């Protein structure tokens, strides 16, 4: 009798280890997918400059990932539970690797990046003939040829990036819903919050690594190794700078393939973790019952799809939670995708520095928040009602802290003819009116007025080019070039200018620090609220509908948030552009300078409005939970999940024929 007991105990420990190993592998997959996702978002500005496209197109590139995810999310979430979930997760990781490789491909197919400047690449950088002079037509960039314009626009190499991101979205589809449902099916109910907290922690460690790696790559010139960087006349703070965005995707392509391998060795099912270690007979009975259930589900793979869908749509708490998520994630999507661009324009910092600070200040508090939230939920075993109230209060605190961002603002850099006049009293001229790029000091210089090659005068005013500043000669090469004898610059100095826009004052740096301190506290409260809120989602739906419910929840986020929000918000940002860059053919490209005041009002105002509107359906959820009948707190050996009873309205929605097997399972799972 001793040997069989020993065998059962060993078997239980082996199964327990398999679940731990699966959790580890899935956490690594979460880390890698979140690294590539955050790397993509951080490099959107570099991609925008590389392909010289507006922010609206950048929003389409970002949304293509969600389009790919949206194509399969509902069917993968439902049918994936009937198939081999670990193998599907492994296949998804391999597809993500293919998408990352395709994203990096344009770098190897297109020529070197040529940024917008006043002189042609063949001109001598120390030559003075391109400055303020009446006879310099030989050294200026040639007149655009319409055929060159048509050829340049028809290339559309950024489409490779969009298609690759779409394929990456397809590959990411099975990882989250199938991974979560696999864990939910085979672990104790009381361990589920902790396990999901570990997954979300991995989901946050990835962004930390991704943002740091993004900062590193953004500081490396896109064509490093093939150009002499000493000849560059731009720095990472310049809006024409493009970092080595392609490098990370090439690395992630290989890593995704490697991490897919372990999933092909996991079994389709595992015995469920039990509360009592000595319940050997119960273990055997439940394992047999689960295997029988799996066979029944395989025979009825499509019978319950429509009933499950109707049940979810008739679940008021579930649908209200979806609405709350759509509104809140819309706000988070705006801040997450466009924060690097906003802070770069608002505080005058480089993309690499901004991304690095985002990783330092945002991600550690989120990681600790997820861990603490998961631990507290496991330790105190909060009911659904308590979890909902906790999530609501923490989210409200985070939203109120968000309004502090309106206190820390910086004005536009004064640019002559664009944001200020050419006279030296710094008279602010109205924006979005016909800009006066020419003045008496540069009328005779024959300058091009559509080229963005800014210089900063020693009077503290920037000019769109050295020619428009009236500079007559230059000394030095590369980024150390200094322009002298500038007729438009009248100061106590020598009327000289250096490359680039003028730097914003030290007060902007202090305000940026305040911004990130607020972000640190807000991120911590957001993470604390995430796990209780997610438990409300999981406990508001029946166990047999859990995988489909999670997938449908993700479907709504992608359909109504991840795809449209970056596109329409990118269009709103484009409306705040003060000066557009130009292609060689003369057509407008990406924006070089924004109106920071309007940008700030749209960026912060729309985010605050969306998040604030989410509290109305959240209050409705609290009211419904208060009126709903919840099951008593029972032992996990009695029931698999603590689920709510069906309301009369929901019961009416369930008047759809079901398979007998599903009815029997539902009756067993909804016992109190």
UniProtKB/TrEMBL annotation:
It is a multi-pass membrane protein. The gene is LOC101993851. Residues 435-490 form the Kazal-like domain. Residues 277-296, 648-672 are annotated as: Disordered. Residues 22-629 form the Major facilitator superfamily (MFS) profile domain. Residues 658-672 have a biased composition (Basic and acidic residues). Gene3D superfamilies: MFS general substrate transporter like domains. The lineage of its organism: Eukaryota, Metazoa, Chordata, Craniata, Vertebrata. PANTHER family: ORGANIC ANION TRANSPORTER, SOLUTE CARRIER ORGANIC ANION TRANSPORTER FAMILY MEMBER 1A2. It is found in: Cell membrane. This is Solute carrier organic anion transporter family member. PROSITE patterns: KAZAL_2, MFS.
